[in-house]
Amino acid sequence: MKVKGVNLGNWLVLEKWMSPALFDGTTAEDEYWLPRQLSKAVYEARINVHRSEYITERDFVTIKSWGMNAVRIPVPYFIFGDREPFIGCIRELDQAFNWAEKYGLKILIDLHTAPEGQNGSDNGGICGVCKWAQNPDEVEFELTVLERLAERYKTREGLWGIEILNEPALESIWEMFGMQQRYPPVDLKMAKGSKGISHKFIRQFYKDAYERIRKHMPEDKYVVFHDGFELKAWKDFMQEDKYKNVVLDTHQYLMMAEMAGCKQTIEGYLKYIKEHFLKDIEEMQQYFPVICGEWCLFNSLACGFDTKGGQTVLNGLEGASVETLTSEQKMEIYKTIGRAQLEAWNKGSGYFYWSYKLLTDTVNTSGWIGWDSWDLGRCVDFGWFPLNYENESIIIH
């Protein structure tokens, strides 16, 4: 099946910008420091309320009503509750499987974080730290988490597959993003020695993970690996017959296209989508089923402001606080580039939008103009997201 889905981001793996109130009363910017700045009772109460309210059965009904067939669920390395001070969340994932199976949705379990960080960003759980790959004990721990997930859900009807690791920062992206400048570490001693991950390491880790997952999970379920933001570097990888149903996940954001020089106009976005997103996915689809596991409508043009690759609000740059576009202009931008991106993902094996919802107040909090496009629910309600684009004629000029 072609995957048509959405990420349940910020449910079981926190990202402060998506739910700022969870971090009230602290200076924490990531999930690692949050429980270290709150009392145990306050931390546990906040997390338990958040998890029980942020995603419920009703949300699975909504996603199904949009005509979608899958959800990608980011989970942390402490999902089994064996890494204090964090609270495990296997119960919530069990509930998600029951809901998904009830309403005919598939689940991609995405192991989204690693101890000591696999990318140095807030979504990796700890800002400015990327040392997981240098610690053999933690590498082994990550493999055991994957193995336990495979064993627990191996025969579930709702299981589409397991993603080995979200967005490991290879050496190129570590340098390009300047991760420690973009996400400054709190503890400089802890962050010392952080660096990008080598191709040699991540390739071996992916192969080891495949073996550990396949010990339990049948071959009709998918094993998914992330491209490390180097989509075309994997043509010679896992091409042997013994690797069954391996899927390549690429994350393509227009804000990254802007960092690569994409012009901030509708024509500029369409040109970039055609010449890079569409062409590259079509090329790599010859080697693997390719999914775009994260993307969204967010772009600087609709913000009315150059976000410098999505750095406003999150990384200290002041965002736009006054709308410069009419609702009709925003509609045109989003629907046009939305259709073009969906056409690109359709050259592969499908997509998962990032993300299902935000709890950010983009109206009463200054600087958040344009960030509502990360929230698929709002995009659907506003008519920005072309849910029925397959039935419309699409022309990418």
Automatic annotation (TrEMBL):
UniProt entry keywords in alphabetical sequence: Cell membrane, Cell wall biogenesis/degradation, Glycoprotein, Glycosidase, Hydrolase, Membrane, Signal-anchor, Transmembrane, Transmembrane helix
Subcellular locations according to the entry: Cell membrane
Domain of life (superkingdom): Bacteria
SUPFAM superfamilies attached to this UniProt entry: (Trans)glycosidases
Presence of keyword Transcription regulation: no
Gene Ontology BP term (one): cell wall organization
Topology term for the membrane: Single-pass type II membrane protein
Tagged with keyword Acetylation: no
Molecular functions (GO terms): beta-glucosidase activity
TM helices/strands, residue ranges: none
Domain Glycoside hydrolase family: residue ranges: 52-297
Pfam families from the UniProt entry: Cellulase
Assigned GO CC terms: cell surface; extracellular region; plasma membrane
InterPro entries: GH, Glyco_hydro_5, Glycosyl_hydrolase_5
Role summary: Glucosidase involved in the degradation of cellulosic biomass. Active on lichenan.
UniProt family annotation: Belongs to the glycosyl hydrolase 5 (cellulase A) family.
Identification of the protein by name: Exo-1,3-beta-glucanase D
